[in-house]
Specification:
Elements (H helix, E strand, L loop, with lengths): L1 E8 L4 E6 L6 E4 L16 E8 L4 E10 L6 H12 L24
Parallel strand pairs: 3-5
Antiparallel strand pairs: 1-2, 1-4, 2-3, 4-5
Length: about 110
């Protein structure tokens, strides 16, 4: 599987990866015994990895960097698009008196 690193912490050797299949994100954590053997991943890196579908998350194993800095703006662009997709709920309208009529501005009767 290929993916782009959205977030990485080099000191903990952890990363969150957006997968090419556009499914759930994958998570990478170097095993304690291999913590110094894995690649240092940075946000925006294109990687190839083995995907393990665990019970409640996807795990990336054996990552290999294919392109350093492949998509450095991807995480920021996704955060910006989140506001386009998820808009705040409109406040419920309160009834005014016994009136049951909803006004339509610009409509002449």
């Amino acid at each position: 599987m290929y993916g782009v690193v959205l977030w990485a912490d080099a000191s903990d050797t952890k990363a969150v990866i957006w997968c090419e299949d556009h499914g759930n994100l994958a998570y990478y954590t170097a095993a304690e015994e291999h913590i110094h053997e894995g690649p240092t991943l940075d946000a925006g890196d294109l990687i190839q990895f083995e995907l393990c579908e665990c019970a409640d998350f996807r795990r990336a194993d054996n990552p290999k960097r294919v392109g350093q800095g492949y998509a450095p703006e991807l995480a920021r662009n996704l955060r910006g698009r989140a506001s386009d997709v998820v808009s705040p709920r409109p406040e419920p309208r309160r009834a005014t008196g016994g009136d049951n009529v909803v006004p339509f501005p610009g409509v002449l009767i």
